[in-house]
Amino acid sequence: MNRKALIVLSLAAIFGLLTAVLVHRTLRAGSSAPTGQKTKKVVVAAVKLGLGTQIKAEQLSVAEWPESLLPRGTFTEVEKLVGRVTIAEIFPGEPILETRLAPEGSAAGLPAIIPPGMRAMTVKVDEVIGVAGFVAPGTYVDVVGTVVEGAGQNAVSRVILQNVKVLASGQRMETQKDGQAIEVKTVTLQVTPEEAEILALASNAGKLQLVMRNTVDREMVQTKGVDEATLFRGALARAEAGSNATTTGPSASRQKKKVETAPSPETLSKATIIELIRGSERTTITFP
Fold first, then answer.
1. What is the residue range of 95's domain?
2. Residues 215 and 125 in one domain
3. Could you report the per-residue pLDDT of 102-136, keeping only the tens digit for each?
4. Which of 16, 134, 141, 217 is deepest in the core (most CB within 10 A)?
């Protein structure tokens, strides 16, 4: 190996060593540099927690969350959440918040999700009354009551409750008069004590119908209700108005004009009819 080749190899080795040192220092500087984002360990749901669930330790896990993104009311210890009851659905990976839990000592199930001052009342429904199965926990409905006045001559229907939250829906067994047990669908509604009285009276006096609302629509609407006699009087009046319109409207005048200008049978009998034949074409001309 000549002297020139040795010089080239030596320079390459020196440059390689310098490059390795620079890379090492860069990596150390990057690993020791602060990330600029502080994190905190919080308790999150490991599985989906349904409404009214009593929390168990195996349903929870601990995860690192950026402090800047953490809402208030989080927990750092799993033990403090064991036995608590949820009042809302919590999805996997979501931090457990105090605002989504019932007070300590609450029993699991429906009682835990009833707000203070409110009541839960269950009513019997069918596929029609229950809006074909679309009434589910968390939805809002209006309640329409229909009763028969007097000696069964006039039915009255009116919205008796509005913006009522559905707490639960399910089935229960009910015994009929003949002793047979049948499965009956039920819906549990969240009502005030006064609304519970109205609902109880209406369910015993007549028939209830649930009307689905938009989830974000909270507007209360004043209605007059409708009775059977008024309903059919209105339908009859509309039918009579439509009948009069067909005989007195513009179309009627046009029909009358057509009748007045149409030729009489006598005039037609006096008319002269000439038929012209041009090859295979026939043309009829009428002269008065």
1. 39-111
2. yes
3. 888 887 878 888 888 999 998 887 655 556 567 77
4. 141
Q: Is 57 left (phi over 0), alpha (psi -120 to 50) or beta?
A: alpha
Check whether residue 117 and residue 107 sit in a common domain.
no
Identify whether the C-beta of residue 276 lies closer than 8 Å to the C-beta of residue 283: yes
Q: Does residue 73 sit in helix, strand or coil?
A: coil
pTM of the complete model: 0.54
Q: Is residue 284 assigned to a domain?
A: no
Which structure tokens are listed for 68? 């800047």
pLDDT digits (tens, 9 = 90+) for 208-258: 888 888 888 889 988 888 887 777 766 556 666 665 655 555 555 555 444
Please tell me the distance from the alpha carbon of residue 54 to that of residue 111, in angstroms, as a whole number: 12
Residue 69 sits in a domain of what CATH number? 3.90.1210.10
Helix axes 250-261, 228-248, angle to 10 degrees: 40
Residue 96 and residue 101: Cα distance in Å, rounded?
A: 8
Tokens of 100: 């989504």
- Separation of alpha carbons 227 and 229, rounded Å: 6
